[in-house]
Specification:
It is built from 4 helices and no strands. The protein is mainly α. It has a domain of 44 residues. The longest helix has 24 residues. The radius of gyration is 38 Å and the shape is flat.
């Protein structure tokens, strides 16, 4: 029995000391070490300049038309009423519907609903934050 206990204690001690050794081996580099590695990589020419990574290349955006050609095309489109007015992109248009109820009638209906208690108090609607 003593032999089993002695082996258990020995194994536990070995585990504790091994863990300490591994922790020191895999400790993060100090700031000075990182700076030294960076300087060495810079001297060796292994660093990529800022903004020049492989995936960061911008596509070639040179136009195939001259400015005069673009201007004449735009003027022709404007004469033919083919241009979309500024601020009126597709999908942003509101339907051309007019209300059939006057403002006075709407105000009266709202006042009646408030008097009858049919309106939802402020801050208590379905989109109100939960307490």
């Amino acid at each position: 029995m003593k032999m089993k206990t002695a082996l258990t204690v020995l194994a536990a001690a070995a585990a504790v000391f091994a863990q300490g050794a591994f922790a020191q081996a895999s400790a993060p580099a100090t700031r000075a070490e990182v700076k030294a590695e960076t300087k060495a990589a810079e001297k060796a020419g292994k660093l990529t300049p800022a903004g020049e990574a492989e995936g960061a290349k911008t596509p070639d955006t040179k136009s195939t038309k001259t400015r005069a050609e673009r201007k004449s095309e735009t003027q022709a489109a404007a004469k033919g009423k083919e241009l979309t007015p500024a601020g009126e992109a597709e999908g942003a248009k509101t339907p051309d519907t007019k209300s059939t109820v006057s403002r006075a009638d709407r105000k009266a209906a709202t006042a009646k609903a408030v008097k009858e208690g049919k309106t939802t108090p402020a801050g208590e609607g379905p989109d109100a934050p939960k307490k």
